[in-house]
Design brief:
Blueprint: E1 7-13, H1 18-33, E2 39-45, E3 57-58, H2 59-67, H3 70-86, E4 98-99, H4 103-112, H5 118-130, H6 139-149, H7 153-160, H8 166-178, E5 186-189, E6 193-196, H9 201-216, H10 218-222
Parallel strand pairs: 1-2
Antiparallel strand pairs: 1-5, 3-4, 5-6
């Protein structure tokens, strides 16, 4: 008897996206509500702004340029702050001084998959940026996060000094864009169902159940 493989949830996200952090919390709540499902979560890269220099950009300047003024940016982020509070995320936007280019962060997430530590690394990156205002463009920040997550930090430090897997991450981002993904988070369930945006936990859970039911019984999918 062949064991049924886990239901996959491929999450396309960017470390500097606050809605992706909120989406992670909602996905976690959804998974807790369906404990009988065997689910494998995999994280994939996206860049909200690929034009950011490797060293990042002053946060106030970035927000002003993006939203056409800080007042408009603050109004936008007040909504995110409220959504974060609902999910137990105390966003500390005022602590963020730099908007980072996240390619190196995505390389770290890619490498963490080899040790089955992706979720831990993604969580620590979100917290470092949104709760502590850490500079994610600095190698020492990423090395420390890798060490705290249980990765081989000495190897990470060496790899960050090279362009190892930079082309792979860039290709994955291009593939996501070519598949029609224009915003994140994006949840791809069982390779068949797509949830675009930080949907509520109930919506994600319903999609997971539907994917499981239709996977087990293809006729159910045809009758929908």
């Amino acid at each position: 008897m062949t064991e049924t493989p886990p239901l996959t949830v491929d999450v396309v996200s960017d470390v500097m996206c606050p809605w992706c952090f909120i989406g992670k919390r909602r996905l976690e709540a959804a998974l807790r509500s369906v404990p009988d499902l065997n689910v494998l979560v995999r994280w994939h890269p996206f860049q909200l702004d690929a034009t950011l220099p490797k060293t990042g950009k002053d946060r106030q300047k970035y927000l002003s340029d993006k939203f056409g003024g800080l007042d408009r940016a603050n109004a936008f982020y007040s909504q995110i702050r409220a959504a974060g509070q609902e999910e137990g995320i105390p966003f500390a936007f005022d602590a963020i001084t730099l908007s980072p280019n996240t390619l190196d962060c995505h390389r770290l997430i890619l490498w963490s998959n080899d040790d089955d530590l992706q979720d831990e690394v993604v969580e620590r990156l979100f917290k470092a940026y949104f709760l502590e205002g850490q500079d994610l463009t600095k190698s020492e920040t990423l090395v420390r996060i890798s060490d705290e997550a249980g990765m081989q930090s000495d190897l990470v430090e060496q790899l960050l000094e090279t362009e190892t897997d930079l082309d792979k991450v860039t290709a994955q981002i291009e593939n996501a864009q070519n598949s029609g993904i224009t915003g994140v988070p994006c949840f791809i369930i069982d390779g068949r169902f797509v949830l675009a945006g930080a949907e509520k936990a109930e919506t994600i859970a319903a999609a997971l159940l539907h994917a499981e039911e239709t996977r087990a019984n293809p006729q159910a999918a045809m009758s929908q």
